[in-house]
Amino acid sequence: MLKQIMIAHDLSPAAEVALARAAQLAQQHQARLIVSHCLSAPSNSATSHDLAAIKQQITQRLQAQLTQLASHPATVEWVVKAGQPSIKLAELVRAYSVDLLVVGQHHQASPEGFSGTTLEHLLQKIKVPVLLAVEPVSDNYQRSLIAMDFSQTASRALQQLIKLISADTQVTALHICEMAEQQLTAEARSELEWQQQLFAQVIKDECVGLALAPTRIEQRVVQGELFNCLEQALQQIQPQLLALGRHGRGEMADALLGSLTHSLLAAPPCDLLVVS
After folding, report:
1. How many CB atoms are located within 10 Å of the residue 60 CB?
2. In the chain, what are the domain boundaries?
3. 114 with 85: CB under 8 angstroms?
4. DSSP secondary-structure letter at 105?
5. Which of 64, 74, 141, 269 sits a CA distance of 20 to 30 A from 262?
């Protein structure tokens, strides 16, 4: 169960979508919801009274948004800080022992919003899972997809995904064998079969560790180009949530997954859970 969920709100319409998901998850997990906003650095002429008035106005605006949502967490805290968003948010995540940080789709035009660079810098500064919430909320997640390799980071991503979703959420674990998209040779077929067996054992071990039934996680091992295989899986499964494990310095386990993550952050096909 999650205990502390923080939403980083930049006052954009996309952040309202993220707030709705954060509120739904906080209610689902009976967690405290921390609604945060980072102001741009104040001008030298701004007084402490001016800052206090601005913070109060922003808090009232966020409170009004929350009251209009279908989900109403039992405990909500409001935090408005001045400073660079990625730095201040990283400080808040540590100060509140946050279990999950929720953000909306980034906006290049917003000086306070989460541009690609800001979000990627934030991901490098914190170790907690980050949920990029972009889809309108109607209920708990019904379908989820996780792209996995054989790394510890992928294992952590699966664990965080299971912790986040409800017991009846469909989970599909996808492993992509990076090979040329052509007719399989005998050697390539043998490699694919070996990876299928290895991945099946990995998922079996994960289910044991997570106290899940062996059938809880659907397994898919596919061969081909990374982006194409993931796109096909997204079209077939239509997940509301996609989970990825992220290695240090922004690199994923697979050599191509760094560019994949960057692409997904720029244009997420659904809500995106990124786990370090």
Report:
1. 11
2. 4-133, 143-274
3. yes
4. P
5. 141
The H or E element spanning position 57 is helix 48-67
Q: Could you give the CA distance from residue 185 to residue 169 in angstroms, rounded to a whole number?
A: 37
**Residues 6 or more apart whose Cβ sits within 8 Å of residue 43:** none
**Residue entry with tokens 């244009």:** 267
Q: What is the mean pLDDT of the chain?
A: 86
Residue with tokens 């205990």: 3
Please provide residue 131's backbone torsions phi and psi, each rounded to the nearest 5 degrees.
-105, 115
Assigned CATH topology for domain 4-133: Rossmann fold (3.40.50)
Q: The tokens of 59 are what?
A: 């808090």
Whose tokens are 């906006």? That residue is: 107
> Which helix (H) or strand (E) element contains residue 175?
strand 170-178
**Predicted confidence (pLDDT) per residue in 44-103, tens digit:** 556 677 778 888 999 999 999 999 998 889 899 999 998 888 889 999 999 999 999 999
Place of tokens 């071990």: 205
How far apart CA 168 and CA 33 sit, in angstroms, is 23
Alpha-carbon distance of 57 to 51, in angstroms, equals 10
Q: Is 172 helix (H, G, I), strand (E, B) or coil?
A: strand
Superfamily of domain 143-274: HUPs (3.40.50.620)
Do 4-133 and 143-274 come out as alike in CATH topology?
yes
List the end-to-end C-alpha distance of the chain, in Å, as a whole number: 18
Task: Give kind and range of the element (H or E) at residue 23.
Answer: helix 13-29
Residues contacting residue 190 through CB under 8 Å, at least 6 positions apart: none
pTM summary value: 0.89
